[in-house]
Amino acid sequence: MNAIATADARAATNPIFNDNKFKLGMFSQNASMMQMTTAPEKYVPTWEGTKQLARIADTYGLEAMVSFAGWRGPMYGAPKHRSHREFDTFTWCSAVAAITKYPAIIATFHTQLTRPAFVAKAAATIDHVSNGRMGLNVVAGSSKTAFSQFGLEIEDHVTRYDHTEEFMELVKKFWSAEEEFDHDGKFEKVKAGVSSPKPIQQPGPPLVNAGISDRGKDFACRHADIAFTHMRGTEDEWRNIISGYKTLAAKEYKRQMQVWTHGYVVIGDTEAEANDYLRYYAEQHADQNWIDTWVNELMENATELRPEQKINMSRNWAAGGGYGLVGTVDMIMDKITRLSRAGLDGLMMTALEPVKMVERFSQQVIPEMERAKVYRTARIWLVIHLAIIAFSIAAADFDSPSESSIIIAAPMAAMGLIIDNTTP
User: Fold this and answer.
1) C-alpha to C-alpha distance for 193 and 180, rounded to whole angstroms
2) Which of 320, 335, 394, 395 is CA-nearest to residue 365?
């Protein structure tokens, strides 16, 4: 099947809709929250570091760069602690969009800490800056610390999702409404609402959501293009988690969705080398105060865990959270193969030293993914991406919608056949 010709129309500009069986991206590079360690090599966001990562994403065709939104770290009484270092998500995403050509640029935000009119306008702006590569990671609210920055109390679980439902319906209305509109809802009010320009992507930029509870999962399946979730347990358990989202979206809401996870990556020439490096920063240099504060922030009751469970939890947060891809290239490739086999569509990567890790991953792991036919050559996708944009611009010169559709659809289909012939 030619996925480019039949997939979401937003595939014309946004690579998260390409037909790579397993997609790749970077997570939280605007912030320093993911590796809770005192190791001096730990990544702390700078603009120069951002530009290096953006160059790598373009060079190797990574599908996404996803920002983090915390506003501050959880360490009270320590204003210079590295956990507080974070670039604003929308501003950072707009700047990254301006210096990249390929990856999707995904801004993370908390619905209760902003307003639909702002999010709709900011997202449309970044969509134009990126030429149709913007996405939104919708957070229904999970951090009391973030809310305290705004003098607000976090809403209870049910209320925050009710609020987020209303919020996102308004964002979509700002993206679609051609006339002014009013809204008098339970959580949001709008008078004479209008937003221009509209996003390049229609019906709007893709949405990401990390809902895990039953209510959160339902929200993700109803609204999101990508569910962002945890992979724990066995391969069969992964498969059940992933199919749970996709089945609910298909049966209840007649829509398709992707499921991604995030994980820390440590690559070594040998398994021992990789494990030694992990042990160095995640155990010997674990920032235990940071870890304990963060666990409490998430309301996880560590006192009920067995001693060995506490150690594993501590190292996981110090390591970067999420699923660990640690070992040789072959070992990491084996894990990716099993994740893909379970139905996972993508991985957002973090690392203690992300520039070094992503360079090595792109040079050593991606070729193996290409040979396994779960990832296509990045350069082919970049050529296709730029060619489709060029055809789209040319189509704008036609007065007839049918003429412009033919101009765009024909080369897309043709390039899809070319891709099939060049798959490793």
Assistant:
1) 5
2) 335
Q: Is 24 strand, coil or helix?
A: strand
| pTM for the full predicted model | 0.86
Q: Are 318 and 283 in contact (CB under 8 A)?
A: yes
Q: Which two tokens stand for residue 114?
A: 């902003």
d(CA 229, CA 348): 11
32 CB contacts (<8 Å, ≥6 apart)?
42, 43, 44, 45, 73, 82, 83, 85, 86
Contacts of 417 (CB under 8 A, 6+ apart): 2
Q: How far apart are CA 321 and CA 7, in angstroms?
A: 32
* SS3 category, 309: helix
β strands within 140-221, DSSP E: 181-184, 189-193, 207-209
The answer to whether 44 and 52 have CB atoms below 8 angstroms apart is no
Instruction: Write out the two tokens for 259.
Output: 């499921």
Q: What is the number of residues in the chain?
A: 424
> Rounded to the nearest 5°, which phi and psi values hold at 266?
-135, 115
Question: Could you give the count of Cα atoms lying within 13 Å of 152 in the half-sphere of its Cβ?
Answer: 16
CA distance 219 to 362: 34
Amino acid at 14: N
Helices (DSSP H) in 185-305: which residue ranges?
A: 214-223, 235-253, 271-279, 288-297
CA separation for the pair 364, 349 (Å, rounded) = 15
Q: Tens digit of pLDDT per residue, the chain (424 long)?
A: 333 334 689 999 999 999 999 999 999 999 998 999 999 999 999 999 999 999 999 999 999 999 999 999 999 999 999 999 999 999 999 999 999 999 999 999 999 999 999 999 999 999 999 999 999 999 997 788 889 999 999 899 899 999 999 999 999 999 999 999 999 999 999 999 999 999 999 999 999 999 999 999 999 999 999 999 999 899 999 999 999 999 999 999 999 999 999 999 999 999 999 999 999 999 999 999 999 888 777 764 444 555 555 556 667 889 999 999 999 999 999 999 999 999 999 999 999 999 999 999 999 999 999 999 989 855 545 555 555 555 555 655 545 444 444 344 433 333 333 333 333 3
Query: How many angstroms separate the first and last alpha carbons of the chain?
Result: 16
Name the nearest CA neighbour of 366 among 61, 133, 15, 100.
61
Instruction: Find tokens 């999707």 and name the residue.
Output: 104
Residue 411 is classified by DSSP as H
CB 168 within 8 A of CB 109: no
